[in-house]
Structures are given as C-alpha cells and as structure tokens.
Design a protein that fits this description.
Blueprint: E1 3-5, H1 8-12, E2 20-21, E3 24-25, E4 30-34, H2 39-49, E5 53-58, E6 69-72, H3 75-83, H4 86-92, E7 98-102, E8 108-112, H5 114-118, E9 126-129, H6 130-141, E10 146-149, E11 153-159, E12 162-167, E13 172-175, E14 177-180, H7 187-193, E15 200-213, E16 221-227, E17 230-236, E18 242-250, H8 262-272, H9 280-289, E19 294-301, E20 307-308, E21 311-313, H10 316-319, H11 328-343, H12 348-367, H13 382-394
Parallel strand pairs: 4-5, 4-14, 5-10, 7-16, 14-21
Antiparallel strand pairs: 1-10, 2-3, 6-9, 7-8, 11-12, 12-13, 15-18, 15-19, 16-17, 17-18, 20-21
Length: 420
C-alpha cells in the first residue's frame, strides 16, 4: 500500500539556490529518485542541500532494515562526515575482532585480525549493519524530501520539458530529471538501456545468505570454512542469539533456472554442499527453513555510460562492484555525492557528463579489486586453496601497513554546500 512522507516544514522551505525573479524565487528543479536503500537517500540529501525539489519512490512499504553488515571506507567516510551522520555510524560500528579460516575437516588454518585480510584501517573504517546505515540516511533527509513507499515507476516518457512518469499505483507526474538508484537488478536501467545481460559481469560464484540461531558460541567474529570451489561462513556481529550464514560456491554459468524459484535455489545449494563436513549440514538445514533467504550470483554491473537524456543511474544500478570488493555501499555514497555536486550548477546534460568524468576512474579502480573466478576468500582449486592458506599462515595478527593510495580512497571530493 502506497504512503507518502513529507514534512510541512520541507514543503515551505525556500530554495538554497533559487534566484529572485519579480520578488519570487525561481522554481526548483524537480528530481525523482527510484530506490530508497543507500544511494537513493544519500542522493536525496545532497540534491536537497543544492536546492532541488526531491521525491523518492520505493517499492517496499518502509525503509528496509536487516541485511548483512556493510563497510564504509576511504572517501565514503568523508561523505557521511559531511552529512553529519558519522557520529551515529561510529556508535553503530560492529567491532569484528577475529576472522578464522577452517579446512575441510573444520581444523583451524589461521585466526587473524580482520583488517589483516580486508586491508581496512582499524579505528577509521566502519562496518555497520545495513539497516543501521539505511536508518541513518533516511533520518537525515526524511523531513526535507518526499518519500513515497509501496509504489514504483511503471513507465518513463521523456519530452522536451521533462520526464513524464507513470507510477504503478496510478499517479502521473513530470520531473526535470529521474535517477535510478534501484540496485543491481535495476528496473530503471532496464527501461532505459535494455536487458541486464548487456551489462552484467558474472564473477563465477553463487551465494545464499540467511540467519540462523547462534548455537556456536560465536561473538564478534567470522568463521569461514573452505574446500575448493565451496565456502561456508558464520558471521556473529555481536553477542546475539542469531548469526548470519553464508553458503557460496563456484559455478561456470549463472543458474538462470533458479532465480525465480526459491525451492530450486534451496535444492541447488543443498546439492552442492551435500557431502560437506564441519557445521555445514546444520547450515543447509537452517537455510531450507529460513524465511529471509537471499540467493543471487556474485557479479558486477559495467556500463559504457550512466545516463540517457534526463535519466541517470547511481550506485549498484550503474556500477555494482560485487560484495567481494566490500565497496558497494561506499561507491553508492560517493556516487550520490558526486552526482548531486555535478548537476547543482549546470543543466542535466553537462551535469551528467561531469558526474561520469569525475567518478568513473574511482569506480573502475574499485571494481578491478576482484577478478573473475579468483576471489581470495573462495579459491576454486586445491592448488589455489593451498596458496591462500599458506599466505594466511604468514600474516601477522596486525594488519600490514598500506602501500600507496588504496582504491577506496582514490577520489578527493569537491567542495559542496555546508552540511548540517
């Protein structure tokens, strides 16, 4: 059921950039954002700060909570600082203290400080529950822009003076610009650029994520079991009664037949792990009963351009890097900032071009952190697994000193309007 959030204070607020014409402020440029996860609310915040009239439409009935923890690193930390939500996110930081690798029999290969493996910076980088990040973003902007939940864009028709939008709920409105922030499987992208297959880069893995009871005594840690081409992980973000489970496996081609059939997904995962040891049989049983199962392939979105006419894409819809990089949320936050800054003082044609030219190298550097089929956490051959384990045994408990400028910090933000 559709419902709309917007404060009266926001509706009456004058534009920060409007010029007086005949004693009245110039009309604000209007923007529709499709998607209210991470990139969408972040973009709404910055567009509002630049004086746009913003509407966010989201097919879910409310801001989404739950989900796996996400990382905020490098340049993205500066984005959330300028938004004023860094203190809140620091309070929500997950203090992951140990990452343990196991062999096929459940024997310990290595137990390390997580930063030694991820390349993160202790005391700076953030890891928070996805729901905590979406809550913080929504709270930062909900009083200033219009949110429409329980609805979605049905059609887009660009004309000389804007984009005519028909919503699934029946409403019709016209906007100066539209931005798709609707994720890896973006409907906006499909409407403007064609089928996902044109831009989808499969990285050779499938995964199933779910929650299960913490009967393992885990606290603030991740345990990862591997055999060639298979991995099972238990992730305890705190001392709670539940843990996140992950079952991942290599597969030459995506299992298209399973994407729309939850039973087929469960059967596929169960067949892959049928002879697995350690705690995997119990994880498979929990996966079959889980009401929050999320099944997908590990993939990236690679596009030659991120806009068409008055419509642009941001975040995973334009450049999903895959969870193997740990940079999906950070790219979404940085991309939102860059898009808003680029369109703030020029028309959409110049603004979209500036957004892409200023952001693409940063996006590509982060996407290139992982290659197809050779993710260090999920070796696909016995030889690769042996090399990985030897490397892990050689790592010290403390993370190595960073060399050069890491990809997650490879962009310096332009100045924008003051946060607050």
């Amino acid at each position: 059921m559709k419902h709309t959030e917007k404060s009266r204070r926001a509706a009456q607020r004058p534009s920060l950039t409007g010029r007086l014409t005949g004693g009245r402020p110039a009309p604000k440029r209007t923007v529709l954002i499709s998607g209210a996860s991470i990139a969408g609310p972040a973009l709404a915040y910055w567009l509002n700060r630049h004086g746009f009239e913003v509407t966010v439409v989201e097919k879910a009935d409310s801001p989404r909570d739950g989900g796996y923890p996400v990382d905020i690193r490098g340049t993205a930390l500066e984005v959330v600082r300028r938004m004023g939500i860094l203190p809140r996110l620091r309070e929500a930081h997950i203090d992951l203290r140990r990452l343990t690798f196991l062999d096929a029999d459940g024997g310990r290969v290595a137990s390390l400080d997580p930063h030694a493996v991820t390349g993160g910076v202790a005391g700076q980088d953030l890891e928070v529950r996805r729901g905590d990040l979406t809550d913080a973003l929504h709270a930062a902007v909900r009083d200033d822009v219009e949110f429409v939940f329980g609805d979605r864009v049905d059609t887009l028709d660009e004309g000389a003076h804007g984009v005519d939008v028909t919503f699934r709920g029946g409403d019709r409105r016209t906007f100066d610009m539209v931005v798709g922030a609707d994720g890896l499987h973006s409907r906006t992208r499909a409407m403007l650029f064609g089928p996902e297959e044109r831009f989808h880069r499969y990285l050779g893995y499938c995964f199933a994520g779910f929650t299960l009871p913490n009967t393992f005594g885990l606290s603030h840690e991740t345990v990862l079991w591997n055999t060639p081409g298979r991995a099972a992980a238990l992730y305890a973000v705190g001392d709670g009664d539940a843990v996140h489970g992950l079952l991942a496996f290599a597969r030459p081609e995506p299992p298209h037949e399973a994407f729309r059939d939850p039973r087929a997904q469960r059967d596929l995962v169960a067949s892959v792990f049928a002879d697995a040891g350690w705690e995997v049989p119990g994880m498979v049983a929990a996966m079959r009963d889980a009401d929050d199962l999320f099944f997908d392939v590990v993939s990236q979105i690679r596009m030659p351009r991120w806009s068409s006419g008055r419509v642009a894409l941001v975040g995973d819809a334009a450049y999903a890097p895959s969870f193997l990089t740990g940079q999906g949320s950070s790219l979404a936050l940085v991309g939102a900032y860059m898009l808003a800054a680029s369109v703030a003082h020029q028309d959409y044609t110049e603004g979209f071009a500036a957004y892409e030219s200023g952001t693409r190298a940063y996006v590509t550097a982060n996407q290139d952190q992982v290659g197809k089929g050779d993710a260090a956490l999920f070796p696909t051959t016995a030889e690769a697994l042996e090399r990985r384990d030897a490397m892990l045994r050689g790592l010290s408990a403390a993370p190595p000193a960073p060399r050069g400028r890491p990809a997650h910090s490879a962009l310096t933000l332009p100045e924008s309007v003051p946060a607050g």
